Amino acid sequence: MLPLDPDIKDALLGKDNRYRQVLDVVLDYEQGDWRNFSQSAERLDLDEKKAVSLYFEAVEWASLF
Hints:
By secondary structure, this protein is mainly α. The chain contains 4 helices and no strands. It has one domain. The protein has helices at residues 6-12, 18-30, 34-43, 48-62.
């Protein structure tokens, strides 16, 4: 019932799209699944160190609310 963009809803439901690929990077990192984390980051052409930096930046931002 949340007013989410259809692509975001699809990603949360497991459908493969760009948002799901980003979510996969986050979930792999949070679960310590380093092999899949590397593969997910590579699929997005995202440097792993940059991905970790962005993750912590997002966590810090979210803690403000």
